[in-house]
Amino acid sequence: MAASIFVKMIEQNVSLKPYNTFGLNAQAKLMARVGSVPELQVVLADGNLKREERFILGGGSNILLTRDVDGLVIKNEIDGIEVIGESPEHYFVRSGAGVVWHELVMHCIANGYAGIENLSLIPGNVGAAPMQNIGAYGVELKDVFHSLEAVEMASGNVETFSSADCQFGYRESVFKRKLKGQFIISSVTLKLSKTPNVNTSYGAIEQELEAMGISSPTIKEVSQAVINIRQSKLPDPKVLGNSGSFFKNPVVPNSKFEELKAKYPNIPGYPAGAETKLAAGWLIEQCGWKGKVVGNTGSHSKQALVLVNYGNATGVEIFELSEQIIRSVYDTFGVHLEREVNVY
User: Fold this and answer.
1) 3.40.50.2300, 3.40.50.300, 3.90.78.10, 3.30.479.10: which CATH number matches 235-343?
2) CATH 2.40.50.100, domain 81-232, yes or no
3) What is the pLDDT at residue 233?
4) What percent of the chain has pLDDT over 90?
5) H or E, element range at 151
6) Active-site residue set
7) 20 to 30 Å CA-CA from 198: which of 34, 163, 215, 291?
């Protein structure tokens, strides 16, 4: 596609309210929707757009917009799911970065590709999954990750990244640190199992399966249990603006955890090697934030970890609430919370 033809597809003065799950009414000076790597390369190479700030947008589920985007929003809509290979034990499933994550999970379950059923109903698109190393109910993306392809913004070249290249950590990757703003993920390939090995030991999955009357669950039934749990305590972004978990669960030295447990016997903690992972939601709730409404925003009544937009909140208002919560938790527990969402 010639650049001159593609430029006709550039939209001006676009409201980003429909494109972020907080429902924040920020404006984009320009927006380009790209449905393939060649289209993306044309946009990146366009001389008329070179001077514009570039802002990459996928599903908009992990972004807090505190201002307008005075530049070019590149909306990643690269589609497609396919099996590109298999071994005796695994399928290698490649998905376009613009595919909705939950749709990929449902596709894999329907076809018997096991390994991501615990990650059901996580909001956002596939491209954001490795950036965040998304995780839930005892499973992280890195557990099933094989490789990804990404387009370098400066050159337009396509590069392949292995799991080691991505430097996955807890809700972290190289794309949030060293390579932040340098690449646009175009596809992700997962290594999924032919023989299911369901993981039901984390959170309330076993209890939910028991309530469903299931003792030997399939991957579809594990997925449904996860969906039931998430829907019972997390607000639907289509009804109440939110980005899911706003904060990471903090990790502290074991000595700090023992100190906290002596003072707060009921504090939950999960072993993480020489450290302990705390439950951010519990910390926030103990500080009195759960269900508290502050102006047009607040902490959700069923899950303190989720900050919500009650209809007319601005990104700045939500950010300021998060600042208050961070200070409150630190003053009470001496633990610093980090935001999981990306603040713009």
Assistant:
1) 3.90.78.10
2) no
3) 85
4) 86
5) strand 145-152
6) 171, 245, 340
7) 163
